[in-house]
TrEMBL record:
InterPro entries: Cyclin-like_dom, Cyclin-like_sf, Cyclin_PHO80-like, Cyclin_Y. It comes from Gasterosteus aculeatus aculeatus. Residues 171-256 form the Cyclin-like domain. This is Cyclin Y. Keywords: Cyclin. One of its GO terms (molecular function) is protein kinase binding. Belongs to the cyclin family. Cyclin Y subfamily. It comes from the Eukaryota.
Length: 339
């Protein structure tokens, strides 16, 4: 996720050192025991009842747990491949690299393509709604579009029975992202928060609540990821019929259902990125491939040599430090540039 490994900024080590120094300088009474002085108090993380077994199966927290949307989409992918095999239909022709031509796309884990990422996220939400469980789940009124409509138009009586198409979900997400000028990384974090909400609160996403659930995830992801976050009142300019108080309440309850866990490790982010790529390939939404040009090849080669030089320099410095402690830092040689 760029240059950071987490979406949450830790507290300053300097402030922690100052706090401990103030505690150490405070004179303790010799007659008071360790329990009365509070020296044996457990850390707050040790006092919390964290179920590690459930965390290991939560894809939004654990990097090795499989994503929910990919497992829900595999049923339709198998049926699609079976129908293509039975009917002998031709699939879209894919481009493959050869000895003379190499095809690459501009989409990377650090710089995803915005349009294709939004398409994949919308498709993931579609599979969540289509293959949702029959037992339902807990009902949260804050996400109900009948109680909190996004428009002034009358909500149909069977609003919770009309399953939205993938294009409808894509248009809704694309409108928010284009109007608020959000990035592709924010779309991936949105999907992570959405699946974290489904697992933490045990909520089922359906035709009657998907818009407000996606809106809450986008609202929170934009504030966590972007340095200059979009305000709630700005979303009211995009969605003309929604009030600021409703947006504030949506954000507050969304955070409470997430148990205020907005941390996204880099490993979890990378897992969702590659699973979205797998989802796009299985649904013929592959990212556009372009032949590798000479200029791009030279840039890739230069970046590869730079990384290789840094790795060799780090290994050389590590061997020198382990051999002797006379000079820990050593002399750093800089190659001369001849013009």
């Amino acid at each position: 996720m760029g240059s950071t490994t987490s979406c949450c900024v830790p507290s300053s080590p300097k402030l922690r050192r100052n706090t401990h120094s103030r505690l150490d300088s405070y004179p303790q009474d010799a007659e008071l025991g360790g329990e009365e002085t509070g020296c044996n108090l457990q850390h707050i993380s040790d006092r919390e009842n964290v179920d590690e077994s459930s965390m290991a199966h939560n894809p939004s927290d654990h990097p090795r747990a499989g994503t929910i949307f990919l497992s829900k989409s595999q049923h339709d992918a198998r049926d699609k491949r079976k129908s293509l095999f039975i009917n002998n239909h031709e699939t879209t022709r894919r481009k493959y690299s050869s000895c003379s031509t190499i095809f690459l796309d501009e989409n990377t884990v650090s710089q995803p393509d915005l349009k294709n990422t939004i398409k994949c996220v919308a498709l993931a939400v579609y599979y969540h709604i289509k293959n949702r469980g029959t037992e339902g789940g807990m009902v949260q009124e804050i996400f109900d579009e009948k109680l909190h409509p996004l428009t002034k138009s009358e909500v149909p009586a069977d609003y919770d029975q009309r399953r939205p198409e993938q294009k409808q979900i894509y248009r809704f997400v694309r409108t928010l992202f284009s109007s608020a000028q959000l990035t592709a990384e924010c779309a991936i974090v949105t999907l992570i928060y959405l699946e974290r909400l489904l697992t933490y609160a045990e909520i089922a996403i359906g035709p009657g609540n998907w818009k407000r659930m996606v809106l809450g995830a986008i609202l929170l992801a934009s504030k966590v990821w972007d340095d200059q976050a979009v305000w709630n009142v700005d979303y009211c300019q995009i969605l003309k019929d929604i009030a600021v108080a409703d947006m504030n309440e949506l954000e507050r309850q969304f955070l409470e259902l997430l148990q205020f866990n907005i941390n996204v490790p880099s490993s979890v982010y990378a897992k969702y990125y590659f699973d979205l790529r797998s989802l796009s390939e299985s649904n013929d939404l592959s990212f556009p491939l372009e032949p590798l040009s000479r200029d791009k090849a030279q840039k890739l080669e230069a970046i590869s040599r730079l990384c290789d030089d840094k790795y060799k320099e780090a290994r050389r410095a590590a061997r020198k430090r382990s051999a002797s402690t006379d000079d820990l830092r050593g002399v750093r040689w800089v190659p001369a540039i001849l013009s």
